[in-house]
Specification:
elongated, 6-stranded mixed beta sheet, alpha/beta, 34% helix, 8 helices, 30% strand
């Protein structure tokens, strides 16, 4: 693998082995590109293993009337569930309503109904409205004072790190050359001062070598500015 990285010229080299880098690698290989990806730690070591573990359907955007975002997020979530049902599980959520709160029974019911329709929620997983007694039966620790009821709706829980690994494995199966514990130290340039690859460092042995590529994609998340400065 390292020999290929040293000797080949790639269409694109991706810096960062989180879900963003993995997704780009899979998409690029499926488009027929010759792809390399380097990750300075282990795959999904950073942000991609520190999420809320939820594949959101975009409910929070409804309050801001961002209807298009809810629909798009719901479609994307459905694709994740269809492609990775073994790492994506429907999870019932409870939205309690209290006296004096910003959302009443009517507005909550309307909002959750819109969410179900826009996000393409399956009929068996659509919202149910609960009275105060039913809400307490679902969650006894919810604040009882002023409780008017609740709305139950579905989000999807995922193993974020495993999802990243699954996408990475698929990219490798499609032909991407992928390596971890390899840091992009700085960019390399041609005679016209145009980026033509990166200089990589093996974080275990300390060996350094160039990786030639027509394009470089910085998918390093929180380290994006650090990488860019190289």
């Amino acid at each position: 693998m390292k020999k290929d990285l040293k000797n080949d010229t790639f269409d694109v080299v991706i810096i960062g082995g989180g879900i963003t880098g993995a997704g780009i690698a899979l998409d690029a290989t499926q488009r027929g590109m010759k792809v390399a990806l380097v990750e300075m730690q282990d795959f999904a070591q950073g942000t991609s293993s520190r999420s809320t573990k939820l594949v959101h359907g975009g409910l929070r955007y409804l309050k801001q009337l961002q209807v298009g975002v809810v629909a798009e997020t719901g479609r994307e979530r459905a694709i994740v569930y269809e492609n990775g049902p073994h790492v994506t599980t429907p999870e019932r959520m409870l939205l309690p309503m209290h006296k004096g709160g910003s959302m009443g029974k009517f507005t909550t019911a309307i909002g959750l109904t819109m969410y179900d329709r826009l996000a393409g929620v399956k009929k068996s997983e659509r919202k149910t409205m609960l009275n105060a007694k039913e809400t307490l039966a679902k969650e006894p620790l919810v604040k009882k004072s002023g409780l008017k009821g609740g709305g139950s709706y579905v989000e999807y829980r995922t193993d974020d790190a495993r999802l990243t690994i699954e996408v990475m494995k698929r990219a490798a199966e499609k032909g991407a050359t992928i390596i971890n514990h390899t840091k992009s130290v700085h960019f390399t340039y041609d005679s016209n001062e145009k980026v033509n690859g990166i200089h990589a460092e093996d974080q275990i042995t300390g060996e350094t070598y160039p990786i030639k590529a027509k394009k470089v994609i910085n998918a390093s998340g929180p380290w994006v500015d650090e990488v860019r400065s190289g």
